[in-house]
Amino acid sequence: MDIAAALRAFVRTVERGSVTAAARDLSVSQPAVTKHLRNLERHVGARLLERSTRMVRPTVQGKALYEAGRSALATIDAALEGVRHEMGAIEGLLRVHAPSCIGVRHLHPIALAFQERYPGVTIDLVLENRAVDLVYEGFDLALCYGRPDGQELIVRRLGQVRRILVASPQFLARSGPIDTLTQLSEVDVVTTATELLPRDVLTLRRGSETVDVSVRPIMRTNHADAITATLLSGRAAGPVQLLLVSDELATGRLVRILPDYEVKPTEAFWTFPSVRFMRPVVRAFTDFAIPALRAVEGVDAGDLRLEAA
User: Fold this and answer.
1) Which residue of 97, 224, 288, 309 has the fewest CB atoms within a 10 Å radius of its CB?
2) 3-class secondary structure, 253
3) Which residues have C-beta within 8 Å of that of residue 255, sequence separation ≥ 6?
4) β-pairing, 121-127 with 92-98?
């Protein structure tokens, strides 16, 4: 029996909760994974997995083997890739997760530039607005808004993502100038639902001052592109991440309103699983991407001494 292959099949099955998903990730057949699992259970003399029609879960013995096996495989992979790195090769699969807003506009071109420099790297770039478990979902890296939980994560602070108030010239021509908070409360607004919780109130900051403004939302959406499109259509004003509209501001398609005020910014973090050895491709992409992301207009890196490593 190939112990390494069997452990890899077992670890991936636990992480994915499915033999079929593990086989797909490992690019082998489902019967092959099942055979590895059966041989591994026979080898250790214990039942490692509980199977149901919906999912596969580890037994108590399986959990213990998973924790040891996952770390061991990660160390082996890192050591092997380290040797290749010493020979001048940064290559292999890199799985990265990020919110769609910053991912489409900024992380995607960064990933393309990295892959052009290192053509031996294949990047799985997953862009969606949800929290992920890097270990169980098999991601090497994640860019996330808000500090993530998890003792097994290494976290590096990217900076604050600024949110400003904007409107299109067409909207202002129709509604009139918006120079006061009272005027803001009287116009149509588009924003996220969470921005207005628990009621239709927008919290703004001016220096150290915080003020709540009642607003009139015509649309609430969880997708940044929908907010930007609504703003550009001239249908509403509202808050938006500066990094999404810097080009539109430069060309005059959108303009800032109430420039002394901003919405409370969101902290952005770069995270990856904590293992004894970081794979060279992960380290290389981290070193490549973080300075590029911090240089994006709308990301305020601030005091880098606050970065958690």
Assistant:
1) 309
2) coil
3) 166, 167, 168, 169, 172, 249
4) parallel
- What whole-number distance in Å separates Cα of residue 256 and Cα of residue 164? 7
Outline where the chain has alpha helix (H). 3-16, 19-26, 30-44, 60-86, 100-102, 108-117, 134-137, 169-175, 181-184, 224-233, 242-251, 280-294
- Count Cβ atoms within 10 A of the Cβ of residue 232 and give its class: 0-12 exposed, 13-18 middle, 19 or more buried: middle
Supply 216's token pair: 């009139």
Are 138 and 60 found together in one domain? no
Domain count, the chain: 2
For the chain, how big is the Rg over CA atoms in Å? 24
Strands 255-256 and 153-167: what pairing?
A: antiparallel
| Contacts of residue 260, Cβ cutoff 8 Å, sequence gap at least 6 | 206
Q: Is the peptide bond before 119 cis (omega within 30 degrees of 0)?
A: no
- Determine the 3-state secondary structure of 92 from DSSP: strand
CA distance 296 to 113: 15
Q: Are residues 284 and 136 in the same domain?
A: yes
CA torsion angle for 238, 208, 267, 129 (degrees, to 10)? -20
Q: What is the mean pLDDT of each run of 10 residues along the chain (309 residues)?
A: 85 87 86 90 89 82 87 74 63 92 94 95 93 83 87 84 96 95 95 78 91 93 91 96 95 97 93 73 93 95 55
Specify whether 79 is located in the same domain as 162.
no
Q: Is there a single domain that holds both residue 69 and residue 193?
A: no
Domain membership of residue 79 as a residue range? 3-85
Gap between the Cα atoms of 133 and 295, Å rounded: 27
Distance CA 215, CA 184 (A): 7
